[in-house]
Write a structure and sequence with these properties.
Layout lengths: L6 E5 L3 H10 L4 E5 L2 H11 L3 E5 L10 H13 L4 E6 L3 H11 L3 E4 L4 H26 L14 H14 L5 E4 L6 H10 L8 E5 L5 H9 L16 H4 L4 E5 L6 H13 L1 E2 L8 E2 L3 E6 L3 H6 L5 H7 L2 E4 L9 H17 L5 E2 L1 H9 L5 H15 L4 E2 L18 H19 L4 H8 L3 H10 L5
Parallel strand pairs: 1-2, 1-3, 3-4, 4-5, 6-11, 6-12, 7-8, 8-11, 13-14
Antiparallel strand pairs: 9-10
Helix pairs in contact: 2-3, 5-13, 6-7, 10-12, 13-15, 14-16, 16-17, 17-18
Amino acid sequence: MADAPRKLLVVEDDPGLQRQLKWSYESYDVTIAGDRAAAIDALRAIEPAVVTLDLGLPPDPDGTSEGFATLEEILRLKPDTKVIVASGHGARESALRAIAMGAYDFYQKPVDIDELGLIVKRAFHLADIEAENARLAEQPGDAPLGGLITAAPSMVKVCRMIERVAGANVSVMLLGASGTGKELLAKGLHDASPRKKKPFVAINCAAIPDNLLEAELFGYEKGAFTGAIKTTEGKIELAEGGTLFLDEVGDIPLPIQVKLLRFLQERVIERIGGRRAIPVDVRIVCATHRNLDEMIADGSFREDLYYRLAEIIVRIPTLAEREGDATLLANHFLQSFGRELNRSLKGFTPDALAALNAWRWPGNVRELENRMKRAVIMADGSRISAADLDLDDKDDDVGLLNLKTAREAADRRAIRMALARTENNISNAAKMLGISRPTFYDLIKQYSIDV
């Protein structure tokens, strides 16, 4: 099934253009329809993921009424279909109306086969991502590390590394920027380990005042200090047999670092105010966004503690480094928040998709989640726009108000990535992008990319 040609429905009444498009898209399973009735019959029969639709259909070949009626019916019957609308009649007005109705993209005639081919390719890519996301949503147990959503090679590599070390009783340090999902990965590591039936206990070391952190970690005896009205176990004891996740471990003050080091060396603790050594069997997973090498150099983090905590180091990529994941996660949050907030939204407008891929995501997945929740609440139409995401008014971003500029930026990134992965092999890079060598050369020249 994975190797079967993807189904493309071409709705076009010009016989010459029908033949040209069918020949140009030989890598797809192309079905041609010349009018609305044939288009709807084909839609029901083959359920294509992508449709190209000429608005000038009979009995109104010189207008757009029949085309818009066809668009409306396609989206009513199969809302997830990516419809690419083409017209030469009042292009701007037609484009705005088509996008507002739920079309994926708009293309002005006369048709440039290569450019339209790139739009079709991107539409299929998005359709594949949405289909995979829906599969993961229906079968959460099949997702890597118990729920992590990713298709990026860099993040899949991290997941595979965590799965390999999960069975070994070693301390693991997760290094990554804020919002990259360090606690989710730590929980995934625990669930993939032999300790999965025992507790997973997490503590954010940066969120607890220094004078309380020791008590939170090690517990205290009754009467140890004012307010200690009963003996209380600390997080380390509560994690007996399981995993203790120390988030923002770089924020632990030096005096507590000493006590934590003793525990890691001897695997026993003493509660505050206590004199009895309590053995504890627990695995330590820690995380930080801080530069521990610099902290060791300036004396604010103990080097011996670092080596105890970092028997295995896993570096987590930022969302900007996770190719394709912004769109994948955005679709996941769209479905999740749509259910939670009782909003029925069909997807994203082209400017929103361009914005999602062009944005740097300084806050990573946490920022994307927050923006998506806001967008689901604020969206006026049936699809989320860049304005709903609040990603269309940043002067220092890649022309997000201009869809053409955003597309060009995405094309440049894709071309450079293909060249890097194929070591500047033009044939392999063109094949990776799904275009011909002449088209690839034209794009290199158009964007002044140095090979």
